[in-house]
Amino acid sequence: MERGKTRACEAPLAAEQELAAALLIEDTEIAHWSAILSHLPALPIVRAELAQQGVGAEVLARIDSLASASDESGLAHAGAAGCDGDLEPSTTLAQALRDADSKRLALVIVDAALRRALAGDPRAAAFLLRLSDARRAQQRAKHDLVVSNIALVRYFARRSARAAPMAELVQEGCLALMRAVELYDHRRGVRFSTYAVWWIRQAQNLCVSEQMSAVRAPVGALNEGHRIDNLAWAVYGRTGNKPERDELTEETVGGYKAYAGPIAHRADLRTTSLDESVHVDSNARRIDQLSSGMPRVEGELDMAMLRHTLELGLAKLPVLEATILRQKFGLLDGNEGSLRSIAKRHQLSYDRARTLCEQAMRKLKREFEHLGIVDLSCCPAS
After folding, report:
1. pLDDT (tens digit per residue) in 68-104
2. Can you give the chain as a three-state secondary structure string?
3. Domain 297-370 indexed as CATH 3.20.20.370
4. From-to residues of CATH 1.10.10.10 in the chain
5. What is d(CA 299, CA 133) in angstroms, rounded to the nearest whole number?
6. pLDDT higher for 89 or 46?
7. In this model, does residue 295 exceed pLDDT 80?
8. 381 confidence band (pLDDT: 50, 70, 90)
9. pLDDT at residue number 329
10. Spatial separation of the C-alpha atoms in residues 261 and 226, rounded to whole Å
11. Which tens digits make up the pLDDT trace of 140-179?
């Protein structure tokens, strides 16, 4: 029984039902604008916000005329005396404001600005309550239309589930559906389901392009790739063999575009992180399986830090001892030298050169311990 109810809720709306829902949303938005214009002290705030949003001068002039007519009728004095200062704006002005707000952003901005500006005014309590009621009625009407078309999101998410996580596809599709509900205009002669499908597919295709590959492809290329991919699966289900490019060229209506093949089949070339574990029960990473000749960023950083610390320690040694260490371990030119050649170069005996080298090593080790480096492995003096 519950399953039958769920399927009934997921049934698509008829054209008359979509039109009725769109008309209800339009009526609630007009009622919201009428509630905003019904309070005389709110008109300057409304005009300032609408001017910032770039609303036409004709609509702003009508708001000014409404405010001036109210002043002449004495409502301004009544409001100053402690009355609410309620007006009865014409529905045509609210309709004009709704039509001027094509992106449905001005209504939200003006409503929020009024709530901030009049929050502490006790005379505006009834006005703010009317605003809340109008806002809730508008949200309920939009919510009902979104829920009635949520099956479209799941349907197109399943079609792209091989390319991106299902949860993210549903999330992006729901956000696009809510935006479609806000921007839909029934006077254009297009059904809401047709309009919502465009928004849902655009959002999900963009999600696929961001998830599947490090290289982003245009949305048109993604659409062509999905078309070729679906055709390839249809041929595979009919013949049992993976189709070649020539077969797809014959099957494709409108031609097989060169970029469609790699995009359609790039799900097989999944991007893999180098830090990913090789096996579930293993701590080994894929980067550990690379060739030892490939430079690793972590090792380069460790060596750079070690060289910097080593130079700091050598700078605190006597010049002769530091020079002997640099020549012995090849810190100058990369060529390690023997103590005999170093002693001969500095006109020292072998024993004296070895003693200086050992002293320098002890001093350098203490300096490293002072810097917090306790694991120091160096070649022993020979």
Report:
1. 877 666 544 444 434 455 666 668 889 999 998 888 8
2. CHHHHHHHHCCCCCHHHHHHHHHHHHHHHHHHHHHHHCEHHHHHHHHHHHHHCCCCHHHHHHHHHHHHHHHHCCHHHHHHCCCCCECCCCHHHHHHHHHHCCCCCHHHHHHHHHHHHCCCCHHHHHHHHHHHHHHHHHHHHHHHHHHHCHHHHHHHHHHCCCCCCHHHHHHHHHHHHHHHHHHCCHHHCCCHHHHHHHHHHHHHHHHHHHHHCCCCCCHHHHHHHHHHHHHHHHHHHHHCCCCCHHHHHHHCCCCCCCCHHHHHCHHHCCCCCCCCECCCCCCCEHHHHCCCCCCCHHHHHHHHHHHHHHHHHHHCCCHHHHHHHHHHCCCCCCCCCCHHHHHHHCCCCHHHHHHHHHHHHHHHHHHHHHCCCCCCCCCCCC
3. no
4. 297-370
5. 63
6. 46
7. no
8. very low
9. 82
10. 10
11. 999 999 999 999 999 999 988 877 888 999 999 999 999 9
What is the residue type of 92?
Answer: T
